Please model this.
Amino acid sequence: MSEAAVHGDGHGHDDHDHPAFLAHHFDDPEQQYDSGKLGMWLFLVTEILFFSGMFCAYALYRSIHPEVWTFASQFLNSTLGAINTGVLLFSSLTMAWGVRCAQLRQRTGLVVSLAATLGCASIFLGVKAIEYTHKWELGLLPAGTYESQFLPAAAHHGISQWLYVLSAIPAACVLGFGIWYAMTIAKGEKENSEVAGPLLVTALCYFAGVGLGLFLESGEAHGEDHGPGTHSEEHIDGHEHPGNVHEGEEGDPGHKDAHEGGGEEHSMLPGEAKVVFVSAETDGMKPLPKPGAATDKEIDQSGGAGLFFSIYYCMTGVHAVHILAGMGVLTWLLVRATRDHFNEQYFGPVDYVGLYWHIVDLIWIYLFPLLYLIK
Amino acid sequence: MSEIADLSALPQEEREARENFLFNTKGFLSWALTLDHKRIGLMYLVGVMSAFFIAGMLALLIRLELMTPTNTYLSNAQYNQVFTLHGAIMVFLFIIPSVPAALGNFLVPVMLGAKDVAFPRLNLSSFYLWVSGAVFFLAAMLYTGLDTGWTFYTPYSTTTQGPVVAATMGVFILGFSSIFTGLNFIVTINTMRPPGMEWFKMPLFLWATYATSIIQVLATPVLGITVLLLAAERILHIGIFDPAYNGDPVTYQHFFWFYSHPAVYIMILPGMGIISELMSVHSHKSIFGYRFVAYSSVAIALFGFLVWGHHMFTSGMANVTTIIFSALTFTVSIPSAIKVFNWLATMYKGTVQLNTPMCYALNFIFLFTIGGLTGLWLGALSTDRPLHDTYFVVAHFHYVMVGGTLVGFLGGVFHWWPKMTGKMFSETWGKISCLLVFLGFNLTFLPQFVLGSRGMPRRYAQYVAEFQELHQMSSYGAFLLGFGLFVALGVFIHSLMAGKKAPPNPWGGATLEWQCTSPPPYYNFLEPPTVNDPYNYKPLAYRDGDRGWEYVHPEAPEVPQSEPEPAQS
Model:
């Protein structure tokens, strides 16, 4: 772990074969590096086991309610998911590049690589913010607060207010880092401006992610050409099929008036394309309900879809927290990189953070198909 | 190292006093911000002892209430809160960190001849995680009273009014403290062994610590996510554990015990490691079956991951699943029995000295064996069904946790006390405390086996009048046990105040920690110690009370030196 790699300060070494970066209790840089690397790998093992609880919950409930998973997954925007996958993969590349730069003592290359990695993380979070806020608006929430998608709901106009809330912190960051950057430029503090600049770009990248998300969220609805209303017809057909017995015990009275809501049009942005969220399922992807099988509406109203979103929020939420933590340590690396702390003999921290970053990436590589691509 | 060069001019006594880790720097911050594993270990020792004191007092309160079949001091609701607090503090704040974090921190680097653990800052941060987890946890529980039991079983924990979220966050933080400690030890043992110390030349305490650390690293994250999901269930109603939303409360039990059964081995394995050391040192005989004892630690760690279902035989599992879990449960008895038999064989034809640590070690073997054997009743399906959730279970796990871990921990504290503090303690009173603990413990928990097998369920404040006699026996035993522990505390305090100066090697141990002064200098070893067989006692000879045991050198056998000499390789 990075703690290990901190240079031995305050212990008063003047041993000539004990360089400043070598902690007092290690014999040589190799031992220090190996310890840090093993520590990081063990930490990654704990990370995997930490996520394993949620993967187990996913596997368990998906095997019990496969129809819920295929139904609920169609509310996830796989284009945005794919974009985020690409962004994270690219960030892994820049991170690996950064490790190489640290090993070769290429200070500028390292700073640029770290900045690019931070920027990608920020784009990822921006896109995620769009995805989350859409779902909150639509009532695609964890089980306890999940709102049926077949109830008449008020049309959602404009950008979700939640997006403003979420964006407040990055906006504050843009402001703060912008001022700081301007000050460092004015004072001619090169080292600090090399920190402030990338951080400003990182904060701005969040808004790039948001913009990308807004554009694609509306664009996909157009691109895949979902005819509003056609699917709600299908629901009604499915529902009224004599073989379709209501399977959930809930037998809620609300479903009778539900189909009006099925084709509800939600406008995403004023003056922009109309987005039909509920009918985002397409004919090609969704098989017609088998006789006797629960219809989408029944699945939805039995409360099961909420369970999918519970797991979705838990998994992606914990993953997003890991992205945030990664951004924290990347910033720490950025500061140290501008101070020229890393060299051919001492590049451990960059390497360890790189490993961490790759595991966060790898977890997303699993989350993406398991959540987005199962419909 | 200029610091050491300066000091070498000073007289021996003063040099030791100056370099002694307890006094080499002074002031509150020099302890609060220390990166020295020995100081962190001592701070943990004080911390876990305080937690043990609180939880022990609660145990006495429980036993006081159970003196009569009706409510006398506590209402039913208060009783629920008290036993929850007792269990939760004992498990999360005392037993789990007791040996690994307190003794392990002190001993692991010294036994390796290293200067510190691999990640000193991480080590200090895990101590502060422990402190903040403890504060969080205690505050949450004292504020409104938690009444779920230490297991936080759903659905009760998702519906009760108690501060479940705060308490689970406390558990989450404590879990990370435990993970970081385990991670630190694994890396330390892997990368910082001195030249010549191969895996099978390591002291068995290190093997036990290594096996424990593996469990801590692999199991605790699952507890972390489990309590996080539990908190999310309460705050957001995510439904994973709630049948109203297609979830399943038994899932919680599976998740919880996937951690908490291995955690049982986090609790007992380090105790077993201590006993392996104590048996050999105080018998002055090489440990019998070194490799078997070493491998059995790892085997227990691995088997421990496969048996969690035996906590849930009555929770509604498929029959075939219960049979598999039952069968797997019995496999754990094999490595456990290997250890017990090897300890006994170690004593055979040894020069057994009944010092206080050895008395505790024998106490451990007796109590742990009862605890282990009564586990067979609970692992077998037919007998577990009627015994489930009775006092039989309570007595069984107290025999393992208290009779095993606590007694082993005390034995270890007595054994390494001279090394940690540089002071000897009163042998007589130490042995008296051991006897009192032994008598008090058995008087407390033997009646509970009888109670349980007669159908007394656990976790009730009231009971039918026929059980009163046995309950009173148990309560008197608990007071005696408490008294015995206070005697032990008195021995420690007396030692600190007026103890005789300890020699580097008071017991005649051959592991590396006995080669440095008592207490060790800040850097542990002025020169790298010579690595030899950790259980070869032949080159050691007893001098006298002031000098303890010293290595005998064939060429110069009578050179008086208080500085330990490296052995002939």
